[in-house]
Amino acid sequence: MVTLKGIHIYLRALEPEDISFLSDIENDERLWELSHTQTPYSQYILKEYLANSHQDIFEAKQLRLVISDYEDHPLGMIDLFDFDFKNSRAGVGILVKNIENRQKGYGKEALQLLINYCFTHLNLHQLYCNISEDNLDSIKLFTNQGFEKVGLKKDWTFHKNVYKNEYLLQLINR
Q1: Is the pTM of this model over 0.85?
Q2: Does domain 9-126 have CATH number 1.20.1560.10?
C-alpha cells in the first residue's frame, strides 16, 4: 500500500466534494501567475476535470493531490505534471491556499511525501519545478528538499505588464 500520510497532513485524490475548493483555487486571480492561467474556469469544466481525475498518471500524464489535515480540511494542492515515463521525470507544483496555513510546514511535509512517492513507487529519476525569481518562499521550500537551481530563464513569464525571470530547479534521484 502506498502511504502518503505524514505527521500533520496526508495527500489524497480529488473527490467530487472538492469542487468548491478547486474552483476557489483555479479562479483566484492572485494565483494565476503561479499556474499560468489567463481565464476563469467554469463549474462545468471543473466537474469534467474531476470526472476524469481517476485516470492513472501513465494515461493522464499528471497527478493532482489534495493536501489535507487529519480533520479532513483541504489545505492546498500538490501536482505532478508533464509526467514523462520514457525519460523518467515529472514536474512538481505546490500551493497551500490560505496565507494563514503557510509557513507551518504543510508544504514541506507534502513535498517530502511526494518526492518519496515519486522515487519509490513511480521509479522516477528526476523531478523539476519552475519558480519565479521573486518567489523566495518557494525557492527555499524546494532547495531545502535538495532541489538545485540549474538555470534561469530570462523574461520567461509576463504578468501585470512585467516580464519576470524564472528558475528551473531539479532533484535527481541518485
Answers
A1: yes
A2: no
